[in-house]
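Researcher: Please generate the 3D structure of the following complex. Treat every line as part of one assembly.
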Amino acid sequence: MAFDIRADDLVENPTPRVPVSLCIDTSGSMAGDKIRELIEGIGLFYAAIDEDDDAHDSAEVCVVAFNSGADLVQDFASIEGLRRDVSISPSGLTHMGEGVNLALDTLEKRKSQYSDTGVLYYQPWLVLMTDGQPNGDRAALERAIERVTSMVDSKKLTVFPIGIGSDADLDVLGRFSPGRPPLRLQGLNFKEFFEWLSKSVSKVSQSMPGGEPPIDFGSIRGIEDL
Amino acid sequence: MRAPKRVNPLDFVSPGGRLLIDTSVFMDDRPERRGGLKALLERCGQQIRLNDNPIVIPTDVIEELTRQSRKVDPDREEAIRRAGVALGFIEDAAALKLMRTDIGHDATHYADSVFEAIFTRYANQYDMCLIINDITPLLHVRLLSASSSKQLVAGSLTSDGLVEVESDQTLYERGVRKLRRKQDEGDAREVAALSPLLADFKGQFGTAEPVDRRPGATAARASIGVATVRRRVEPFDGNAPFRGADTPIEVASIPGPGDKVHLESPAGRGWVVLDELLGEGGEGAAYAVDGDRVIKIFDRDHVTRHRQAKVEHFTSRSLHSEGICFPEAVVTNEAGEFVGYMMPRARGNEFRVIMNPRRFLKAFPGWTKADLVDVCISFLEKVSYLHSLNVIVGDINPKNVVVDEAKNVWMIDADSWQVEGYPCPVGTPMFTAASALGRPYAESLRTMEEELFAVATMLFMVLITGQFPYARSGSDGDIARLVKDGNFAFQVGERSNRDQPEGNWKYMWSHMPRDLKEMFWHTFHRDGNRYTSPPTADEWLRAFRRYRWWLGSDKNFDPMSNDVYPFRFKAFKPDTPILDCPQCRRAHALVGEWSEATQEHSIPDMCFDCRQQNRPKCSDCGTPRPPGALKNGRCRECNRKRDFGTCERCGKETPRRYLVDGRCSKCQTGTCKSCNKSVLKSDLSYGRCSACEKRAKALDPSRLCTDCRQPFIDFDHIEWFKSKGLEVAKSHAAIKKTCPPTTARARATTSSRTHRAPRTSPSPSKPTASKPTLQQQPSLWGRLQKWWNS
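Model: Done. Output below.
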């Protein structure tokens, strides 16, 4: 009796969720190999989630792209409901603040759906990827930074700031993440990053020694590029 | 001791009865029993044919007799011969319609013995008599008879075709003797099945404990009861103090595929080559050995003193028990260093396939509720046995328990179990009691209460296929907090709670028997009387065995209670009408609703789902709504979603018609007329940004009053003169001001002027007609002061 696919998907799976928000830069400078490899990396991320029994039932992914505006490319969905044919043509500026705000708004909406239906969830993840520096509305950027850092402080969000290539502004990325320094990906090793990310999703529900969930940048092979 | 009673089997071949015979009766070669089967048929034959109610010889019995008849054992020659003879005997009796052999495991899938299953299921339907020699079913039938509305008897066959039924006390003593024998033989499975049965039996009939005549057993110990008897398998030290922090052991090498490792156990020692890698996990790798054994080799980080000690403790006792992967041998590398252990190989699926309806339906498509209850019983038998040995599983979670298709449960990951003061170093928040949350698991020993919380959680999540007991709507998803709150949302009786999670979970809960719901409620709810002392594994075992019986009994009046996924609440009473849905045709989908007013049941015209489906749906979200609740084809929420937008600057939800360029009215921008900068409209004052506004109100320091040599005119005013093409005034007097304050009155005037300035700044330029008025009545302040002084 599937009269509402989205609601059914939400309530029929009792597994606690790990909401993962990918907030990606699609400005003009991302054109070419960068965007191609990033999209390949996301595809690999989806495939890895699909194959892993734990991640398959727990991961919910959302994709926000930002350039001269912000666009919800993929609203939160389980792996079965994700659109796999993502195509993005980069252009325009880097409105990072607007992008992060949209990602956070989308996350808030999903969280309230979880709450309404009684679905459990682990601390949500925000993966923020850019290859440049923000040049959107200053106030929107400050507001985004304020929102992210206060959520991180109250343990309501885990943020992974990723700088792509040598032009990425790590200072701004660092402001989003007071605890964990941003990671610079050189040589476009998206594959390794997304592989690690999917493994980490599956680890969230595993037996643990107690205390904080084990999220460890150190296990990424590209860590030398930091 | 009372003499056995003799029962005439004729009473059980009438239409409301059933007569059943077990394998052992056919193979009984005791001379005093000879001729019993013939006498039985002579007694009952006529009546059997008259009522067409043949004696039931289950398929399983035929199979067992066939197996037995093929055996070669000089000591049991007569019994084996009799098995062969019995097969022909039964075949002929069946041809004469005196016996039937068509009932058995093919039609059902019971884990327990076929007789136990038949008796449990039909306990309230038929008067039944079982002819059998084995004590375990005799105990079971007697126990069932205590709560059944029908006559249930079991006993052995005498040579004159009667059934000899023994007293409660005799049965109990036979049971205890068998238990002791099995304990001495180390048959953990039998022990785990028999001990709770005997405990129940003793509780029901108040039987006395027999004297233990085994060497070494003291009378005092034996009289304490079954609980003591069970401890014959020497338990570990349940009071061993915490051993402190674990430390790694440096080893020369971690053996990998193709490497030789050494095994050592009390049974012997030897070398084996690791060849078939089964898998790698977070702690190490597993290799298959001899088909039904596994060797776990730890990785370097997990070769620790605690693990070594635990493995040595387990192997030194030579513990073997079906479904429990006890370490059997210590595994060392070629340098003789501890690197892992050997254990039995568990087969089947991790419990987590049960914990998700989609996976569950795929893995076990034909299962009913009874199958899930069987899984719980099997799980509890293992846990009960481990607890009797003072072993605490610790990290009970859906990945550490395995179930096969025959519903046998396996406990794995022995090296994490808590034993002899060595803690279980890991845990899973959903299965962690509030008292153990928030600190590292390795830093202290788990209490039995914490363990039993995990057991209760697991049972709940198996029965309801994965939903967490503390899931509730309106929470922020924080598992640890939900556990700590202890606010169990599922309701029982008058204790209502409206925050049950969405979905069919509430129906699954509704169909559980009341006593079990009470047990869960009292365990999980902070107001429950078992919240701080959860039921023991044996208590649960009794409750689940009762549930299993209830499912097959006529007390279970709602057929949907047998389904894993009911889609409506349980029918209220046995006489509630239950009908199929005329629209979707699903069986038992409708139940009558009792009306006090009319004193009869009203039957809904279709099931809930169909009613929902027939309702108009919101064109945006697809949710069915009652007629009239949709506006423009959409529900309220979706209309709101359409009509409201988020201001892209401040994030405030605002009706779309008030959003201009994606922003709310407060976040609109305008241009400052002075500096041409773009600023928020709300920050503009008379078209100017606050900086320009402030500047305009300042006195020009370069222009001094010709009378008093003080700055006297603000930039705004200067601009006004210039804009009119006039010469800028040169003194206070020229702009209707007085020179710097010398009197209170003058000061008041000046300050009032400044006060009013933002709103009346153009006032000095007002037509001259107003000037005399201004002059006559200098200010409101002045007038007020005058009024005050008067």
